[in-house]
């Protein structure tokens, strides 16, 4: 085959290849769109899953605080009862039997 | 009630009556835990840890915070007479080791130490004591532990630790001068200068510090016995009445708390509430 013929056939093959690749571009764009949709969907599912897990753990996990944190101190009722009882009188009566116990200075 | 369980804790003998074996063990453990947390003479106690951090904010255990809260409540109710910030004053007077190891010393006692009560801050479990102040919670820990131990008894019985006593059910109790009285309800506590005393430079010292002077109190009474609804209340009132001197009987009457005062020469004085309680409950 002569040189001119070879060059001509190469040119024709190139043109044919260009012709074949022209309809592939919309297919790549479509694939890219699908990938983007899948990515967004996966991210959405992950965010929703995290939110649901957070909500569920708040509601059901024993160690998670279920209400706003309060400073740790004696409950008000406890303090109230102790204050009420602190300096209140007990009852003594004349001894009815020999002593079973003794009080001495501490 | 006949079963007596005895052990030593907090520098005194503890007697428990009417407890099952398990209850007696639980009570012994309770005393050991409290002693370990609040003793000035155990280097690793939480109290000593807190005292070492004087001047800085410290996160204390819930139990410790509750005891400090009680001590502050006692201080408020007694106008500052029961003061938990007098640990340094006690040490200055010479009470710097376990009482059993304390000996008379010809050297003088240290200087008087002021109260740091005004600058003590407790917010929840965060505690800050002023620099150079040392806490001593003995004014509430022992009697509170007696009350807590009594709660562990399922049947009639009593718990006694040193002078502090609380009982489920009526109990005949020997008083310091060999008289006896029936404790019908509540707790009975005796405070005084006759037992925990020692000498520094020939001067008699004892463990009841007057916060107004920062030194062992001068009181006309040797022993004061008070009956309260709880042992804690009785102990706080007995110490306050001792520190108040001649005003003690009247102060107790204002609170309708029965009190009995013994002087060094053996004279017994009872306040109106004591006599009234004996009269009203003579036929129980």
Which structural class should the secondary elements of chain B be placed in? alpha+beta
Major sheet of chain B: size, sense and barrel closure? 9 strands, antiparallel
SSE topology string of chain B: EEHHEHHEEHEEEEEEEEEHHEEH
State the helix count of chain B.
Answer: 8
Describe the structure.
The complex is a heterodimer of chains A (106) and B (284). Chain A has 106 residues and is mainly alpha-helical. Chain A has a domain at 3-64. Chain A is 63% helix and 6% strand. Chain A is built from 3 helices and 2 strands, in the order H-H-H-E-E. Chain A has helices at residues 3-21, 24-60, 76-86; strands at 91-94, 101-102. Chain A is rod-shaped, with a radius of gyration of 44 Å. The N and C termini of chain A lie far apart (125 Å). Chain B has 284 residues and is of the alpha+beta class. Chain B has a single domain, classed as Roll (T-fold). In chain B, 32% of the residues lie in helices and 27% in strands. Chain B is built from 8 helices and 16 strands. Chain B has helices at 21-38, 46-52, 62-77, 87-93, 138-150, 231-244, 248-254, 272-280; strands at residues 4-9, 12-17, 57-59, 121-123, 126-128, 157-161, 164-168, 171-174, 180-192, 197-200, 203-206, 209-210, 215-216, 221-228, 259-263, 268-270. In chain B, the strands form 4 sheets. In chain B, strands 1, 2, 6, 7, 8, 9, 14, 15 and 16 form a 9-stranded antiparallel β-sheet that branches. Chain B has a 3-stranded antiparallel β-sheet with strand order 3-5-4, covered by helices on one side. A two-stranded antiparallel sheet of chain B has the order 10-11. In chain B, strand 10 and strand 11 form a beta hairpin. The longest helix of chain B has 18 residues, at 21-38. The radius of gyration of chain B is 19 Å and the shape is globular. The model of chain B has no long low-confidence stretch (mean pLDDT 92). The interface between A and B is large, with 29 and 72 residues. Strand 1 (91-94) of chain A pairs antiparallel with strand 9 (180-192) of chain B.
């Amino acid at each position: 085959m002569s040189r001119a013929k070879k060059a001509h056939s190469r040119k024709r093959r190139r043109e044919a290849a260009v012709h074949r690749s022209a309809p592939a571009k919309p297919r790549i764009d479509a694939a890219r769109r699908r990938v983007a949709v899948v990515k967004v969907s996966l991210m959405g599912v992950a965010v929703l899953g995290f939110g649901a897990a957070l909500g569920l753990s708040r509601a059901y996990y024993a160690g998670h605080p279920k209400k706003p944190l309060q400073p740790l101190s004696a409950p008000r009722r406890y303090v109230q009862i102790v204050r009420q009882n602190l300096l209140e009188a007990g009852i003594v009566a004349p001894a009815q039997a020999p002593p079973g116990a003794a009080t001495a200075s501490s | 009630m006949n079963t007596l369980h005895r052990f030593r804790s907090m520098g005194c003998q503890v007697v428990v009556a009417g407890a099952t074996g398990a209850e007696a063990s639980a009570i012994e453990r309770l005393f050991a835990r409290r002693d370990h947390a609040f003793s000035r003479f155990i280097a690793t106690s939480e109290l000593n840890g807190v005292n070492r951090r004087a001047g800085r904010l410290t996160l204390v255990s819930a139990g410790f915070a509750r005891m400090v809260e009680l001590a502050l409540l006692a201080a408020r109710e007694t106008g500052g007479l029961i003061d938990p910030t007098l640990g340094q004053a006690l040490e200055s007077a010479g009470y710097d080791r376990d009482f059993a190891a304390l000996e008379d010393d010809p050297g003088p006692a240290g200087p008087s130490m002021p109260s740091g009560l005004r600058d003590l801050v407790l917010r929840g479990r965060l505690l800050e004591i002023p620099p150079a102040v040392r806490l001593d919670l003995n004014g509430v820990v022992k009697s509170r532990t007696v009350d807590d131990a009594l709660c562990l008894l399922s049947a009639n019985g009593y718990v006694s630790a040193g002078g502090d006593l609380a009982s489920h059910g009526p109990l005949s109790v020997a008083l310091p001068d060999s008289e006896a009285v029936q404790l019908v309800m509540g707790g009975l506590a005796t405070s005084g200068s006759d037992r925990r005393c020692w000498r520094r430079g020939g001067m008699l010292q004892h463990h009841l510090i007057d916060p107004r002077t920062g030194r062992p109190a001068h009181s006309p009474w040797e022993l004061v016995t008070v009956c309260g609804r709880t042992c804690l209340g009785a102990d706080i009132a007995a110490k306050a009445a001792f520190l108040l001197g001649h005003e003690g009987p009247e102060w107790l009457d204002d609170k309708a708390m029965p009190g009995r005062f013994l002087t060094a020469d053996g004279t017994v004085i009872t306040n109106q509430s004591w006599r009234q309680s004996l009269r009203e409950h003579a036929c129980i």
